[in-house]
Amino acid sequence: FSPGLLVVAGSFAAFRLLNRGLERLVPPPPSARHKRWKWVLRTPGGKRGTAGTARHSQPLSPCRFYLHPELSNDLVSTHPPGAHSLVAVSVGYFLEDFVDMLCNQKLHQSWELLFHHSVVIICFGIAVLLHQYVGFALVALLVEINSIFLHLRQILLMANLVHTTCYRLNSLINLGTYVVFRMATLAWMTRWLFLNRHNVPPAAHAVGTAGMAIMTPMNVILLYRLLRSDFFK
């Protein structure tokens, strides 16, 4: 039994309670009332909020590398308690988000995100249970920095604010952070797995390689959709 599982369970419960509370506190605009559950989860401070409360890992992941420089030199075996707990909290978040989508969306509407979350939960779950690859998981969490602007975009769309300066500005920032924190991070992680293929056990290397093989095409497709929607209309 790993104490990390308690952190995962606590994270799941906390985000679940936060979700229920915000459903009563944050009224959606008329244009978003038919998607109330999605509006609540994407408002500032919400579970997928732009303020960073729920996308907890964006500011904290770089901080962990600053507080624990040894993580940069050893992404496999180094696991400071704070860094390990951060990964465990992330597993709880993705589990709760997974359950939310299952309960509120039809499978054909959310299968891509469900698949994405399944891959993340498996890979991060290994790091939590084995106390290994915590640094590598923290690198992966840098991807979520872009989610602040990705979900702000969704809020603006649901509020019918597409033709505004705010939306245009967010589109530019969203594209920049997408390239830097998603595509560049995934490329670096793929390169690291290739260069360290002889230093990582075959089973773990296979899981990591499969994760990159799934996540990279998904993010390339999403980048194409963003470009087509916001810049190449």
UniProtKB/TrEMBL annotation:
Main location: membrane
Membrane-traversing stretches: 136-152, 172-194, 206-227
Keywords tagged on the record: Membrane, Transmembrane, Transmembrane helix
Localization terms from the record: Membrane
Superkingdom of source: Eukaryota
Domain TLC: 42-233
Membrane topology: Multi-pass membrane protein
Name of the featured protein: TLCD2 protein
Biological source species: Catharus fuscescens (Veery)
The encoding gene: Tlcd2
